[in-house]
Amino acid sequence: MHRGQEPNSGGSRRTRTLAELGPRYKWMALSNTTLGMLIATINSSIVLIALPDIFKGIGVDPLKSGNTSYLLWMIMGFLVVTAVLVVSFGRLGDMYGRARMYNLGFAVFTVSSILLAVTWQQGAAGAWWLIGWRIVQGVGGAFLMANSTAILTDAFPPGQRGMALSINVVAAIAGQFLGLIVGVWIYSPSKRYRAGSPNRSK
Q1: Which domains does the chain have, with CATH numbers?
Q2: pTM of the model
Q3: How many angstroms separate the CA atoms of 200 and 202, rounded?
Q4: From residue 114, how far is each of 33, 90, 111 by CA, in Å?
Q5: Which of 97, 125, 150, 201 is 20 to 30 A from 167 in CA distance terms?
Q6: Tell me, what's the pLDDT at 4?
Q7: pLDDT band per the 50, 70, 90 thresholds, residue 81
């Protein structure tokens, strides 16, 4: 019996089959998990382009002696936490429901992204604020990555499973370079110059 949805931890509800969930469920699962993988991987690479503006905004020179740890943790924090936790979070998905853990990851990722965008602190305090929420963001990314392929394996029959997993992997790979492209477009020096240039009529 193919499972379209995991039972809850208390076992008070039985697992619904794919037939009960309907033919649209697998495509909803594919679109949602692919979006999650794309967002998580774009986020892991876009920060590389944004780093100069991030550190300028909080008034920290990351290349100054004593500040290089801020730079390293800003780059590596998300990736290290995701790599360390992905297996454990996959096991949590097996125990408590993959869709539930995936949704939890989406919520954690979204909240941490918002808090990263509203930083008001400066100097070392601002740097550690960003690093801390960047690590929390990695926790959300680990939930997404650990459970997306498992959800697709449950949702798709064997004859379509390879296609679904391949689309998910392509989204993860594409996110790595799309983050760089989007980052360059957003943080382009020429765009910043045009936005801050004085009125030519003066």
Answers
A1: 23-183 (1.20.1250.20)
A2: 0.77
A3: 5
A4: 21, 25, 5
A5: 97
A6: 47
A7: very high
pLDDT tens digit sequence for 50-66: 888 888 888 888 888 88
Q: What pLDDT was estimated at residue 111?
A: 94
β-bridge mates for residue 3, sequence order: 17
Is residue 43 within 8 Å of residue 174, measured between CB atoms?
no
The DSSP secondary structure of 54-105, one letter per residue, reads: HHHHHT--TTSTTTHHHHHHHHHHHHHHHHHHHHHHHHHHHHH-HHHHHHHH
Q: Are 145 and 98 in contact (CB under 8 A)?
A: no
Name which residue leads in pLDDT, 36 or 193: 36
Name the nearest CA neighbour of 126 among 51, 80, 70, 79.
70
